Amino acid sequence: MMDDFLKSAKKQFLYYKSLGEKTMAQLQDNDLFWQYNDESNSVAMIVQHLWGNMLSRWTDFLTTDGEKEWRQRDQEFEAIINTRSELIEKWDAGWQCLFDALDAITPEDWDKPVYIRGERHTVVDAINRQLAHYPCHIGQIVFIGKMRSSGWQSLTIPKGKSQAFNDDMFGKLR
């Protein structure tokens, strides 16, 4: 059962990772740093935050609190990343840390407590917490992408194409 949960969680993380990547691929470099206003975040800031969160939460996932002393969360929302390559490097490093931690979970680990900011979680709860958190930010990235991209290519079912999509999907089942 736990193996099935872990496979499902990895599949969902990969899906949301791909949505972010497909969005960023549709943006010009300058669009990665665009902010609607001073209170909003750019794609780069969101990536910075995800990177910081992922490194903090998934480094020594089972043995140390998920809010590491070295994390500088407030700085994650400042304009620090300056290039697409730096953004992609942080994006990849964060996801790699997450997947390495998930891949290291053994059957014996499921009963261990996981702490995040001193709050005790089960391993399943800690994974679910992040599986709820990251898609929120990926959704922000997609929303910014839709606002900034000229010629946006839908990442899922395009507007007005639901019936054609369903016909195609159900046609494959017949």
UniProtKB/TrEMBL annotation:
It comes from the Bacteria. The lineage of its organism: Bacteria, Pseudomonadati, Bacteroidota, Sphingobacteriia, Sphingobacteriales. It comes from Mucilaginibacter ximonensis. This is DUF1572 family protein. InterPro entries: DinB/YfiT-like (IPR034660), DUF1572 (IPR011466).
